[in-house]
Amino acid sequence: MQIRRMRIPVFVSAPSPENLNPVQTASAEMIHTLVRRYKLEWRALGRSDYPNDLPLKEVLRMIRHCSGGIILGFEQFRMTGGQVRPGSPRAGTADMSFPTPWNHLEAGILYSAGLPLMIFREPDVRGGVFDVGSTEVFIHPMPTETMPKQSRDDLDSVFQNWVAKVRTHYYGD
Predict the structure, then answer these.
(1) Which of 26, 44, 87, 92 could serve as a FRET partner for 151 with CA atoms 20 to 30 Å apart?
(2) Which pairs count as long-range contacts for 153-162, CB under 8 Å and 24+ apart, including other chains?
């Protein structure tokens, strides 16, 4: 008889797969592979769990049962030549990329729950949780299929460090 080991649930904040382009899908799959490799369970609203209640209440319920969180900051909206701080002394124009607003909400909930957090962002994504110094969590570049082997090894090391914190939270050591 084979005993199936329980996986530690971690909440992943990312757009739905149908809202990702092929490069983003490949990046998400790289993270998903690491989650599986380290015997974690990828939990996400609309992927592993489907809302029985209002989405934000469902996110709160899910996070209560998780021991860590991953934020995947994929570009979901691009503004070119947009106004920033209109009417203020620091007004100007800028080209900016934004993730799903759910990344910010879910990161705030994970952070306030005291869960180990790992944040990734695409190069042009800025604002909120993706601003350097917004939390004590280091903001990692989004992994890509074309990244060098050394960067893949570095990613694995960073992931191992985060997994140790997740396991400590789960087992209460």
Answers:
(1) 44
(2) 155/30, 155/34, 156/34, 158/118, 159/34, 159/38, 159/118, 160/38, 162/68, 162/116, 162/118
Give the chain's radius of gyration (CA, Å).
17
Residue 72's nearest CA partner among 113, 39, 31 is 31
Nearest to 115 by CA among 2, 15, 12, 45: 12
DSSP 3-state assignment of 20? Answer: coil
Which SS3 state, helix, strand or coil, does residue 114 take?
Answer: coil
Domains and CATH numbers, the chain: 8-83+91-171 (3.40.50.2300)
Range list of β-strands (E), the chain: 8-13, 40-43, 69-73, 77-84, 92-98, 117-121, 139-141
- Measured at the alpha carbon of residue 76, what is the angle toward residues 126 and 132, in degrees to the nearest 5? 15
pLDDT digits (tens, 9 = 90+) for 98-137: 999 999 999 999 999 999 999 999 999 988 898 877 666 7
